[in-house]
Design brief:
Blueprint: H1 11-28, H2 34-51, H3 53-63, H4 68-73, H5 80-102, H6 111-140, H7 147-177, H8 190-201, H9 210-215, H10 217-243, H11 250-275, H12 277-286, H13 300-311, H14 320-345
Helix pairs in contact: 1-10, 2-6, 2-14, 3-14, 6-7, 7-10, 10-11, 11-14, 12-13
């Protein structure tokens, strides 16, 4: 393939031109409407939640202490690759047991409140982040995006989202942990769960687990920052090709989208693996009180200590495999759908 000699330049010159062109694109880029982030985030969140609902049920059960005795009775490796394999097998067994003992519909238990929570949560998060980073960049960074801008925007969006949707996630968690095999269900519906929770625990009962959720803001923040880094790498590759005079082929477009999807999945994997213990603590804090009406866990630090004391470090990572099996593909679906929708309506 013949190339224009003027199009070929030393790597440093190419990168300088790439950075100059990227700055121009940052200035000239069409600013998406604020509502487009809201719509795209909600639709993308819905698609991801539906696709991974069964694994969400398994993850929630493995995180709770209602199922810890069953897990502790099982002999097997506690660490290493064999332990990961054991958790993968346990995930498959629970999926099958739920289907056999409670019916296939039980695999989607809590999906209703999950969607009721996911759609506004993703809408709020993407709306807050998408518009927040633009406002922060315009007012504090000369209109340019950077890792610092992404960090601050993601943290603010995470706090807003957690505070707004905690009651919905609490209801979803309690419905998923509501045992039906051989027992009478405690809650008849989402509304019944809200009424009984407020009656027994007061309005503050709807915000149990909020402290752990706020602790988890670090996870979503890290995910956004890492994802933006991957997007930046893909964008640089595109600009480098253009600067060298290449035309995008179907294969190039495939690589670009694969890079974005892979970046979304890897970003979630890294963030989730680091911050996972807060997920376990959040689930324990949200689960229903015992039959005597006295909650076992009454605070963030107390819950961390009690789980560690009773089950060790492994208890803080209960359900990690099921969690990763769900959130990694969920992140790919979520961010992939979001980018596609924003491409058309942004």
């Amino acid at each position: 393939m013949s190339q224009n000699p003027e199009a070929i330049s030393p790597k440093r010159d190419v990168l300088d031109k790439v950075n100059q062109n990227q700055n121009k694109e940052d200035v000239n880029r069409r600013v998406p409407s604020p509502s487009s982030h809201f719509i795209a985030g909600g639709v993308a969140g819905m698609l991801g939640a539906i696709a991974t609902a069964p694994l969400d049920v398994v993850k929630t059960r493995l995180q709770s202490d209602f199922y810890k005795d069953r897990v502790l009775k099982q002999s097997g490796p506690k660490h290493g690759v064999r332990a990961i394999y054991r958790q993968f097998v346990d995930t498959c067994l629970i999926l099958n047991n739920v289907r056999l003992q409670e019916g296939a519909r039980a695999l989607f238990r809590g999906l209703g409140p999950n969607l009721v929570g996911t759609i506004p949560a993703r809408s709020i998060n993407f709306f807050s982040y998408g518009n927040g980073k633009r406002i922060i960049a315009d007012h504090f960074n000369n209109g340019k995006e950077s890792s610092q801008v992404h960090l601050v925007s993601a943290a603010i969006a995470g706090v807003i989202t957690s505070a707004a949707t905690n009651p919905i996630w609490l209801v979803k968690t309690r419905l998923q942990l509501d045992k039906r095999s051989g027992q009478t269900a405690r809650y008849k519906s989402s509304v019944d769960c809200i009424i009984k929770t407020m009656k027994v625990e007061g309005i503050s009962g709807l915000y149990k687990g909020l402290s752990a959720s706020l602790l988890g803001v670090g996870e979503s923040t890290l995910q956004w920052v890492v994802y933006e880094k991957f997007k930046h790498t893909v964008a640089l590759r595109q600009l480098q090709r253009r600067e060298l005079g290449y035309k995008d082929t179907l294969y190039d477009k495939f690589l670009d989208w694969s890079g974005k999807l892979g970046g979304a999945g890897l970003a979630k994997f890294i963030a989730a693996a680091i911050a996972y213990p807060h997920e376990v603590v959040r689930t324990r804090l949200r689960q229903s009180p015992s039959t005597n009406g006295i909650p076992k866990y009454n605070g963030l630090l107390q819950c961390f200590y009690l789980v560690w004391k009773e089950q060790g470090v492994a208890g803080l990572y209960g359900g990690l495999t099921a969690h990763l099996l769900r959130v990694v593909p969920n992140a790919c679906i979520l961010f992939g759908s979001y980018e596609v929708i924003m491409h058309f309506i942004g």
